[in-house]
């Protein structure tokens, strides 16, 4: 009986398979250790291999299938005692190719391998060494504190490239991209690339201008788009914003929209654009002026447009000056209206404020508007204020806000009007109360500073009987410090 090359390969594998009981021989190496007979009868093994078609014998037929299916799927081991083969001493019968102990790992029957005679022939010819790839050695676990894991957000940002790489892929999604923080930034950068990119982005977002201008991120894109688009495109945005009533007012009242509307106002160039924007804002002027966001839009109109274009604002300010002037934001807008108006618009506005001077002078914010008007030294306005204040200077001097107005009157009014104020103070039933009053003492001090001659002497003479009071009272120290009183 002669062994062919396939037999050699099989026998080479036998020493490696003694732990796996691959052929189903029953006992393992443990059986040998327990005292089992180690002398094997290999005739049964040879018979089994012959039945599987691995014995080259003239009297033996090949396997019916002519392949190695019997080798891959061996029969179940017989229960006969003679079938219990132990491979612990398999090296005693390996004759042709001794087992190489220096190999990392020999080829196993469980490894995928194309079992063909051609392959085996080539292996024998070229003296292949069937070895699997060396196993990767696992790194031993360190006892030190484990490294801090990278947050999923940072890991994703580092591994994932930016999803915004070109404008072409954003067609139809420009509106949604503009509302994203990174998308908005990407689109703003593309606006710097030239007219083609500006036109492409404009076509994608212009019809959504209303929503984008109040968006936390989209408003920045709209601001930059308004700065780089041409006149026709800007007019298209203006028409979109002014198409429906009060839409532009609502945007201006928004914390994000107010910035975009201010940029829109700065970018307007033609008369038609300005008229459309002013007309759209006009129904909400009163609300805008008094709003913490909207008042900046009105002030931007006053700063960017001419007096004729701002006429609707001046008219609204004159009509509602009392309401506007007594509000924290409105008093600032009212002063800005006076500063930007000219000729008849200014005269009308100043006259309207002067007519309401007495109410405004006593208000926490309105008193600043009255002081601003007094400093303009408009004769008609100051005369109107002096007439309203006459006989009430003592009352006004003892109030926190209106006392500032009386001080301003003593500094700006004509001498005749100043004299009327001082005489009214001197005629007070209890003049000493004015000296030690927390607000009126400032008025008396201003009277000392802005009087001269007989009027000034009358003031000092009225104070001398109260010198001891002036020395001790905390509110009279400023008055007593005057050099004239020390004499």
Automatic annotation (TrEMBL):
<dbReference type="GO" id="GO:0006417">
    <property type="term" value="P:regulation of translation"/>
</dbReference>
<dbReference type="GO" id="GO:0005737">
    <property type="term" value="C:cytoplasm"/>
</dbReference>
<feature type="region of interest" description="Disordered">
    <location>
        <begin position="139"/>
        <end position="158"/>
    </location>
</feature>
<dbReference type="InterPro" id="IPR033133">
    <property type="entry name" value="PUM-HD"/>
</dbReference>
<dbReference type="InterPro" id="IPR001313">
    <property type="entry name" value="Pumilio_RNA-bd_rpt"/>
</dbReference>
<feature type="repeat" description="Pumilio">
    <location>
        <begin position="388"/>
        <end position="424"/>
    </location>
</feature>
<keyword id="KW-0810">Translation regulation</keyword>
<feature type="compositionally biased region" description="Basic residues">
    <location>
        <begin position="139"/>
        <end position="151"/>
    </location>
</feature>
<feature type="repeat" description="Pumilio">
    <location>
        <begin position="352"/>
        <end position="387"/>
    </location>
</feature>
<feature type="repeat" description="Pumilio">
    <location>
        <begin position="204"/>
        <end position="240"/>
    </location>
</feature>
<feature type="domain" description="PUM-HD">
    <location>
        <begin position="144"/>
        <end position="487"/>
    </location>
</feature>
<feature type="repeat" description="Pumilio">
    <location>
        <begin position="280"/>
        <end position="315"/>
    </location>
</feature>
<keyword id="KW-0677">Repeat</keyword>
<dbReference type="InterPro" id="IPR016024">
    <property type="entry name" value="ARM-type_fold"/>
</dbReference>
<dbReference type="InterPro" id="IPR033712">
    <property type="entry name" value="Pumilio_RNA-bd"/>
</dbReference>
<dbReference type="Pfam" id="PF00806">
    <property type="entry name" value="PUF"/>
</dbReference>
<dbReference type="InterPro" id="IPR011989">
    <property type="entry name" value="ARM-like"/>
</dbReference>
<protein>
    <recommendedName>
        <fullName>PUM-HD domain-containing protein</fullName>
    </recommendedName>
</protein>
<dbReference type="GO" id="GO:0003729">
    <property type="term" value="F:mRNA binding"/>
</dbReference>
<comment type="function">
    <text>Sequence-specific RNA-binding protein that regulates translation and mRNA stability by binding the 3'-UTR of target mRNAs.</text>
</comment>
